[in-house]
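BUG-173 | component: ligand-complex export | severity: low

The export step for zinc ion jobs runs without errors, but we want the raw record kept on the ticket for reference. Input record follows.
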Amino acid sequence: MELFIKYPMALQLTRAHLEAIADHGARDYPSECCGVLLGNDTGLLKQVRELAAIRNLRQDQALAEELLPLAQPELESERNRFLMDPGELRRIEAEGRRRGLDIIGYYHSHPDHSAQPSEYDREHAWPWVSYVIMKIEAGRAGDYASWVLAEDRSRFESEPIDVVDVQAAPESA
Ligand SMILES: [Zn+2]
C-alpha cells in the first residue's frame, strides 16, 4: 500500500455559486463572461468562498488589443475569448488577502460552445488554479466543468467538482 497516494483535488462550490456563474454568463451572452474564484486551498480541497465578476476586456477591442493582441482577429472576439482586467484582478486579490481568501481559480463562459477548454485557454492558463467553464447555450446555462493545467502545461486535466448546498465553516489554522 502506497503511503502517499495522490488524490485528485476537488473543487467545492455551492449551488448559489453555480447559479451566480450561470446568471453572469446569461447576462453577458453572447460574449464570454469571466470572474475569479476566491477561497481556500486546504491541500485536499479547494473551497470556493466567494466569486468576483470581472469585466471581459475583449468587449473593448482597442484596449484589449493593446494588452494582449489576438493572433487571428478575424476569428477571435469577445464571443470566444476573454481577457480579465489586470487592474481589477490585482484589486480583487488584495481585498481577498485581507480577508484570508486566495485566488484559487477563475471561471468563464463558453457561449454556444462546450465546457471543454480551448487551445487558447490552455496557452493562457496558470498552473495549480482551477478553471471553471460553463457552457451558455442560446443564453441559458448548460454543462459546466472544472479544469487544472497539467504540470507540463501540455493539457488540461478534469477536476472533480463537489457541489454543496451549504459549506462547512473554514478550518481554523
Ligand atoms: Zn474558454
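Assignee comment: Attached the raw record above. Helices lie at 15-28, 61-67, 86-98, 119-123.
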